[in-house]
Amino acid sequence: MGYKRPIPTHLECPFEPEYHCRDCDCKKRCFFNFLSPDSLKRFKAERRMRLYKAHQLIFNEGDQPQGMHMLCVGDVKLVKSDAHGRELTVSYLSCGDLVGDAPFWAGGHYCSSAETLRESVVCFLHRGLVEYLERAEPEFGRRSLQRISVSLCRCMDRVVGMAFKSAEARLAAFLLALKQPPVSNSSLPCHLKPAYSRREIADNLGLSPETVIRGLSAFQRRGLIRVSGKSIDVKDKSGLESVAAER
User: Fold this and answer.
1) What is the pLDDT of residues 218-233, one digit of tens each?
2) 161, 188, 205: which is the final residue of a domain?
3) Is the peptide bond before 14 cis (omega within 30 degrees of 0)?
4) Which of 98, 130, 161 lies at the terminal end of a domain, its last residue?
5) CA of 180: how far to CAs of 95, 120, 171, 194, 227, in Å?
6) Using CA atoms, how far apart are residues 117 and 114, in angstroms rounded to an integer?
7) How many CB atoms lie within 10 A of CB 94?
8) Would you give the DSSP letter of residue 82?
9) pTM value?
10) Does residue 169 share a domain with residue 153?
11) C-alpha distances in angstroms, 159 versus 6, 48, 78, 114, 206?
12) Within a 10 A sphere around the Cβ of 75, how many other Cβ atoms?
């Protein structure tokens, strides 16, 4: 990956006492928002909150999963590398998402590396806690299967897009897929608008940064988006959807 892996800072839940699992305003996006009071109590007692700096690895490709990670605050990218050290960004994740859950359930090794894009807070659930939730909460298994199925379908769509769709169509689909922050007056970092560099967008789409820059400029001239630094606002969603549907 090219980065040394510093030890992340361990901390108590950064949202307490004002923000915590009971009334966290990210709750609707949290994977574990369905837990019963008893399960939530154990969850809060045994989870481990970790603070990662920007561009710090959560885990390396090839590592053995020891539990499950959930992104509470921040943004993460999953990166796949080949034998020559070339890298491809395969997915971006935001607050409320699980990170590396499929390899954990598969019982194998991580098939990609997870790297933070900015300072992030990650909740780690050790294997024993995950197994307890699986037994105690039937909804846990259903949601896990649903999430992995959705991820698989997205990967298949991405492969088809890279094979058959134009650069503009891929870029439009990427912009439409960006998570928008919830409507809230909160100053929590997870409520910030996601911002990606041209290089990060290019890596995700298998394009050159120059192609991404030209595409964003063309979209802005057509009134589809507004670009300000790394921030990109969609101004004409239906127009952008039309571009994304093109072959």
Assistant:
1) 999 999 999 888 788 8
2) 161
3) no
4) 161
5) 11, 17, 17, 7, 15
6) 10
7) 18
8) -
9) 0.71
10) no
11) 33, 35, 16, 20, 10
12) 25
